[in-house]
């Protein structure tokens, strides 16, 4: 018998216990990967190709405080600004739902291609949207979820604004990292509200990524010490500001991950200890035959690593296959547009599995190293 065959046979000597150990490792690593995926989506939202050029400009007091329309000419004069559109979050409910998991924004349709260039919309649908003030475009994910087609009615009941929208779908876009949003005419919202002369925020595109920092500084300085001071920031920074609203979600998920890893170590260490205790006489015979301590420790380490590796393949590999094939918006109720198992997450899971193989073999290896041949041969089977 070869050395690898000997290690493999010992690892699965008690098939039930070995299977339960592997399944425990697999289930724990699957849970660990799932938690890390959720944490990654919370702390690192996906970015579009043009995100590095976009700047969000909101009221410095609060995101809920609107900005005056009169700021537009001054913003367009600022060096580095290439395109600009008002962007107002509507926050309505679709067809009597208690919770609607897609966002709705009022904007200027003419600026879609300039500001959100990665949104793919057929030219005829874009023209139809521009021409019809009461029309909207719907993200492909939302259209699929509600079985919406071009020409369908798309009513939204206002929750933030005291008005309801009676929209008609003019087009369905795709190609962004979040194809759930709905966009409609800002003029339509202004008309329903009696032309208040305000916008929720400004969304603009800079001429180049190199000019973004300087453009942000110019925007903030242009309205400093006015009645409507602004806070300009990159789209990335704007997205991450929402993550802070989840308070200590990162601490909570990290704590759960730590508990999962700790429980995993206890299970694996217990399994290896029981497996080695059952084979003390055999290990003593190997010592008597001339096998040295480091060789026996290597056998135990390889056995522990093997069980952890199988658990890693089943758990982390299963999570990678699952999250790569499912419809994330449907599974999460629209909370996350994607669930991505990144190479970093897989690397973390592999590191945990490797550490598990080492830690769970420490106690059995020390016992075997200290065991004398005579004492080992006296043990009962």
Summarize the structure.
This protein is α+β, with helices and mostly antiparallel strands and 381 residues long.
User: N-to-C SSE series?
Assistant: HHEEHEEEHHEHEEEHEEHEHHHHHHH
Residue ranges: pLDDT <50 for 5 or more in a row? none
- How do the strands line up in the largest sheet? 4-7-8-6-9-5-3-11-1-12
Instruction: Report the sheet with the most strands, covering strand number, pairing sense and barrel closure.
Output: 10 strands, mixed
What structural class should be given to the helix and strand makeup?
Answer: alpha+beta
- From the N-terminal CA to the C-terminal CA, the straight-line distance is 22 Å
Q: Approximately how much beta-strand content do the residues carry?
A: 15-25%
Mean of residue pLDDT values = 81
Fraction of residues in helices? 40-55%
The number of helices is: 15
**Quantity of strands, as a count:** 12
Give the radius of gyration. Answer: 30 Å
How many domains in all?
2
Shape: elongated
């Amino acid at each position: 018998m070869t050395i690898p065959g000997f290690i493999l046979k010992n690892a699965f000597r008690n098939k039930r216990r070995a299977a339960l150990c592997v399944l425990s490792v697999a289930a724990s690593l699957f849970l660990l990967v799932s938690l890390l995926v959720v944490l990654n989506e919370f702390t690192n939202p996906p970015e579009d190709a043009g995100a590095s050029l976009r700047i969000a400009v909101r009221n410095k007091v609060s995101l809920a405080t609107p900005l005056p329309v009169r700021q537009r000419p001054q913003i367009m004069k600022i060096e580095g600004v290439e395109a600009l559109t008002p962007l107002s979050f509507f926050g309505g409910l679709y067809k009597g739902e208690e919770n609607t998991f897609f966002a709705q924004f009022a904007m200027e349709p003419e600026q879609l291609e300039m500001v959100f260039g990665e949104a793919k919309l057929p030219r005829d649908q874009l023209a139809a949207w521009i021409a019809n003030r009461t029309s909207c475009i719907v993200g492909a994910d939302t259209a699929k979820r509600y079985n919406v087609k071009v020409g369908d009615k798309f009513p939204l009941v206002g929750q933030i604004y005291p008005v309801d929208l009676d929209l008609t779908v003019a087009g369905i876009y795709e190609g962004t990292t979040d194809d759930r949003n709905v966009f409609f005419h800002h003029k339509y919202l202004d008309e329903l509200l009696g032309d208040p002369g305000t916008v929720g925020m400004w969304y603009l595109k800079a001429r180049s990524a190199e000019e973004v920092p300087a453009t942000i500084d110019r925007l903030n300085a242009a309205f400093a010490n006015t009645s409507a001071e602004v806070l300009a920031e990159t789209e990335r920074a704007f997205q991450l500001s929402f993550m802070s609203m989840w308070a200590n979600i990162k601490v909570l998920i990290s704590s759960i991950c730590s508990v999962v890893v700790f429980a995993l170590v206890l299970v694996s260490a217990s399994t290896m200890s029981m497996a080695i205790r059952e084979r003390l006489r055999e290990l003593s015979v190997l010592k008597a035959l001339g096998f040295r301590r480091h060789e026996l420790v290597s056998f135990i380490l390889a056995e522990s690593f093997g069980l952890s590796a199988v658990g890693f393949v089943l758990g982390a590999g299963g999570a990678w296959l699952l999250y790569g094939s499912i419809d994330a918006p449907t599974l999460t109720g629209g909370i996350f547009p994607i669930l991505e198992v990144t190479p970093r997450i897989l690397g973390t899971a592999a590191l945990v599995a490797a550490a598990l193989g080492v830690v769970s073999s420490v106690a059995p290896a020390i016992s075997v190293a200290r065991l004398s041949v005579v004492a080992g041969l006296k043990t009962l089977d």
